[in-house]
Write a structure and sequence with these properties.
By secondary structure, this protein is α/β, with parallel strands linked by helices. It has ten helices and 18 strands. The longest helix has 14 residues.
Length: about 325
Amino acid sequence: MKANILEAADKPLAYKDAEKPTPGTGEALVQIKAAALNRRDYWITIGKYAGIKYPTILGSDGAGIVTEVGSEADKHLVGTEVIINPGSGWGDNPNFQSDDFKILGLPADGTLAEYVKVQAQHLHAKPAHLTWEQAAAVPLAGLTVYRALFFKAKAKKGDKVLITGVGGGTGAFALQFAVAAGCQVFVTSGSGEKIERAKQLGAAAGVNYKAQDWAEQLLHLAGGFDVIIDSALGDGFAKLPDLCNPGGRIVIFGGTAGNIPELNGRKMFWRQLQITGTMMGSPDDFKAMVDFVGEHKIVPVIDEVFPMANAAAAVAKMENSSQFGKIVLTT
């Protein structure tokens, strides 16, 4: 088979021949129809991710057709159209992942290939209303956002929700999921064009975080937020508690702008605020997310589709965060 192989941090992905995997007991072989990139793929290619090994096939998101299984009990899966839960080894506690938790695409070979081997229990039926490209965009970002909004933040109809940095894959999903749940959604972005795109997807309003008074603008527009979803951190995070309504919940996953700055803890306890972290999600979260996508007919926002052979160019596009939505590759 052909696969995108990362051979070293100073080398671009190489699309070349690789050994086609064989499924063992409890495993399935999926012929990839489409795969999608995540920020972790970019960090891995520049050597800034824990546990990197070479050579490796990247890619956590994928959708395709089951062609082979390693167990008689899973033979019913052969020929089915599926999307892949990229997390394995979550453990028994729904509140946090176990020490055995792993993400597809490192250390195990991932979806940027013609075939990928995964545990059969991590396959879910592809939502019928989605194309292959759209389905491939769902798993990692959709799971992360679903857990952040509904498991951690307890977002509900009527809540005012702020999504910071709406342009990326998780930001777009957060907007779509919150709108579908009946929330009033506001966004920030460093791009006026992305703010307009967000409004087209249902955002009530947005502000440019490059403006010195961006927080004041948001307070004027919304009056305060019940839920804030943030994946950037950095200096601007210090203003988020001031934007919260009493009892507000701030959920974080990622830190592209740096660390959390010094905060006034007195505001936190007096106003009963919560700051909580999340990452990926449990198998139950993933199933609930797929059901939510199907029920509300969520269609992921795709920025650009590349041929699988051009994965190196697709990853390079992530460097300056110019995209709105997901970057997808097709076989």
